[in-house]
Amino acid sequence: MNKSQIRTAAAGLALLLAAAGAVTPAAADPTNANELRLGAYFVFYHATANDLSGPYVPPGVNLHVRDVQTLYAAYVRRLSSRFNLELALGLPPVTKTLGKGPATLGSVPYNGVVVSTARWISPTLLLNYEFLGENSWLRPYVGVGVNYTTFYDRNSTAAGDAASGGPTRLSLSASVGPAATVGLAVRIAPRWHAYASYSYSQIKSTLRADTAGEIRTTRIDFRPQALVISVGYSF
Amino acid sequence: MRRILARLAAVTAVLALAACGGSSTPSSAHDPSTSRGTLVENPPLRIASLDAPTLQADLSASASGAQLLQLTGAPTCGVDFYYLNFWTVGGADEPTESSGALMVPTGSAAACTGPRPIVLYAHGTQTDKAANIADITDPNNTEGALIAATFAAQGYIVVAPNYAGYDISTLGYHPYLDATQQSDEMIDILAAARSALPDTLSSATSDNGKLFVTGYSEGGYVAMATQRALIAAGAKVTAAAPMSGPYALEAFGDAIFFGSVDLGATVFAPLLTTGYQHAYGDIYTATTDVYSPTYASGIDTLLPSTTPLATIFASNLLPQTALFDSTTPTVTIPGNAQLSAQLTAALAVPSNPNNPDTPLFDLGFGSSYLITNAYRVSYALDAAADPDGAVPTPTAGVPLAAVVPTQTLRKAFYLNDLRNGAWAPNSPTLLCGGDQDPTVFFSINTGTMQAFWSATPAAPLISVLDVNAPPAGPFAAVQAAFQQSQAAELAFYESPAGGGNSAAAAGQLLVEGYHAAVAPFCSLAARSFFSQF
Predict the structure, then answer these.
(1) Is the pLDDT of residue B173 over 50?
(2) How sure is the predictor about B7, in pLDDT bands with cuts at 50, 70 and 90?
(3) Band of residue B109 on the pLDDT scale cut at 50, 70, 90
(4) How far is CA B363 from CA B38, B144, B344, in A?
(5) Mean pLDDT over residues B279-303, rounded?
(6) B74 touches chain A (CB under 8 A)
(7) What residues contact residue B501 under an 8 Å CB cut-off, 6+ apart?
(8) Beta A114-121 vs A94-100: how paired, if at all?
(9) Which of B19, B83, B242, B514 could cross-link B223 (Cys pair, CB 3.0–4.6 Å)?
(10) Is the model's pLDDT at B14 over the cut of 50?
């Protein structure tokens, strides 16, 4: 995480904590202040990237990031009758990146070919505001927060190595960005709720590919939108 | 709240650790050694992979590429182009990184896979410091395309250096026509290529142990120097084909200083003096010892350059053709008026109307000249006192000067003349060129080497091909094709499409392009020659 990201994260966190501090803790029910949620995460990346730049890269070579589905888990702390703090996580999914651009690079297939895979961990901290009364069976909510994303298990596939010109080491910089969500909570039992939410976050990462000491880079602007279906248990 | 923050911090820490512990696919292995022949990255970068139809299509996309294909034939194999970074030495034996190409034939045809022969190729004079013969994606890389189409696409593994001082090399100069350095570098890239081959993406193709050495122009010289060095090292050269090279440097230098100025001399001169100055340290104390004040400043770092040659000429950093002063120097040798007069006459601007080369030689003289008369006279005096055996008057066996010259540039020519070293080829060798070559004179170089070896046991191994001679013998088709090509080019220059030049102007254009025009035909002859072994 670079200094700018640290500053962004700190500012986001401070904003959340300030907002959380503004609520009245006494309003929260201390017996059910914690909640665990589990569900499904449908991530639609909507990623855009600059054309790859570096030695021996023809114009128009770009990347496409394939959407993923994964397990969603969250810890939620009730702060008041209307505010809660949500730390959301997805089970790190394998995200596949495909070549986008020319059908071939020389004679090597490129467009539509899976050139790399990576896993990411992307915790999002959200301050949610719930509408309607605490006893209502249906409560819409909105939230804002901050997302931190880091990538690991970055692998260039055999097809990616062929397109790059040899075994390739990948790095993707970590990202800190804003996140927002809208959702609906349905009480299905005193301690059980069902949730549906739609989230948006901004992830910007610099991809650096090292093939035999030659460095190619691009800036990827992920704007992932995630549909989450989950159930939560309060305790 | 404090507990929540503590938990969050713990989660974040775990995530951060997970991220740090994540691994990526390993890239190639970087070898930190700087010893000669070390391949810096293994496997090396593959710049491009072209199957045979794609290579054919890519070459056909340009007029020059289509012409080349007509000559070389359609590719039998695909070619993978690798970029080698390796360690070698400079002219003063200083370690330096250099780069080059490894072209590997690919495909399922028997001629394209499995054990294949290696062609070790040396390219011609290049003024572009950034030139990279491995970069087949560069449309200016015509020599790379030539050797890919001629050799690699027909089943030969090609290894070719960019030369120290070019591309990624930080040497700061190019050891030009430096037999020791350039043969060392060829041997070093060969070692690097051989260590790369098993680990490339094209590892189905391997070295079958046959080694062919060739090159054109500067590279023709380098190829012959490499052949000599490999023989000295006890390595086997299956066959060699040096092409249009300035092999007999002392004789060639003498001819030029006595007025037979070749086309391109003003470019070659700074490359030569800079290279030899770094190698020997005695060419000059200041560049004004050699060069006229107009050009002396900065000439020692002028070439190679990323500035186009046309811009260098336009900026008056070099004269285009005037190597020498058009005002003839007066030579005065105390007590020898006759020799003084002879040398003064020999240094005059050529004026023999019966010599068809006179107009060409005259281009080498002007009022805004590169080399001072004083320096030219110092060279001429040395040559007169200790003449070369081939120039101006051939003597039996065309030997080098009887003793090591004292004039330092001439001494450098002597040391790097490939008659030096008491050697001869020990495997079949084809010397190819064109006898009308205005840049590297055929008879002084190729003819001298042929004559030099004619009375040695190596004579039966030596073949000489003049692509300009009447078609005959095993390369008759190459000779005929070259001559047809020249006739067609002449007709083109005279045609409206080619500029509607007069016969004289068209002839001049043909002369200017002659040296480069010979290259694909000699390369084709070399391939045909190699295919016999």
Answers:
(1) yes
(2) very low
(3) very high
(4) 45, 31, 19
(5) 98
(6) no
(7) B493, B494, B509
(8) antiparallel
(9) B242
(10) no
Is the distance from CB of B369 to CB of B325 less than 8 angstroms? yes
Sign of CA dihedral B20, B24, B29, B30: negative
Give the chain B residue nearest A164 (alpha carbons): B46
Beta pairing, strands B45-50 & B78-89: antiparallel
Tell me how far apart the alpha carbons of residues B509 and B303 are, in angstroms, rounded to a whole number.
25
Point out which residues pair with B432 in neighbouring strands: B243, B465
Mean pLDDT of B395-415: 97
Which residue of chain B comes nearest to A79, CA vs CA? Answer: B1
Please report residues of A whose CB lies closer than 8 A to that of B51. Answer: 107
Antiparallel, parallel or unpaired: β B239-243 and B205-216: parallel
Does residue A150 sit at the B interface (CB-CB below 8 Å)?
yes
B16 vs chain A: nearest CA distance in angstroms? 8
Q: What is the DSSP string of B71-99?
A: HH-S-SSEEEEEEEEEEEE-TTS-EEEEE
More confident residue, A188 or A18: A188
Preferred mutation among A75, A107, A169 to probe B, highest tally of B CBs within 10 A: A107
B58 CB-side CA count, 13 A: 24
Please provide the size of chain B in residues. Answer: 533
Q: Return d(Cα A105, Cα A29) in angstroms, integer.
A: 61
* Total Cβ atoms within 10 A of residue B503: 10
pTM: 0.91
For B319, phi and psi rounded to 5 degrees?
-75, 150
Among B315, B14, B71, which residue's Cα sits nearest to residue A150?
Answer: B14
Q: Which residues of A touch B15 (CB under 8 A)?
A: 121, 123, 148, 150
Question: Rounded CA gap, B236 and A124, in Å?
Answer: 67
Long-range contacts of B67-70 (CB under 8 A, 24+ apart): B68/B145, B68/B146, B68/B149, B68/B520, B69/B149
| Structure token pair of residue A204 | 């910007």
Give the pair of three-digit tokens for residue B408. Answer: 């330092």
Query: What value of ipTM does the predicted structure carry?
Result: 0.88
Give the residue carrying structure tokens 């974040």: B12
Interface check for B19 against chain A (CB to CB < 8 A): the answer is yes
How close does chain A come to B45, measured CA to CA in Å?
5
Burial of B261 (0-12, 13-18, 19+ CB in 10 A): buried
Cα–Cα dist B259/B172, whole Å: 31
**Phi, psi (rounded to 5 degrees) for B448:** -65, -45
Q: Do B26 and A167 touch (CB under 8 A)?
A: yes
pLDDT at A134: 85
Strand-pair partners of B103: B81, B158
Kindly tell me the sign of the dihedral angle through the C-alpha atoms of A186, A188, A191, A197: negative
Q: List helix spans (H) across B151-217.
A: 179-196
pLDDT digits (tens, 9 = 90+) for B425-446: 999 999 999 999 999 999 999 9
> Cis omega (within 30 of 0) on the bond before B319?
no
Which letter does DSSP use for residue B131 in this model? -
Report the DSSP pairing between strands B29-30 and A203-211.
unpaired
**How does residue B19 score in pLDDT terms, banded at 50, 70 and 90?**
very low
Q: B16 versus A160: which is more confidently predicted? A: A160
What is the distance in angstroms between the CA of the first residue and the CA of the last residue of chain A?
34
Q: Tell me what the mean pLDDT of segment B348-362 comes to.
A: 95
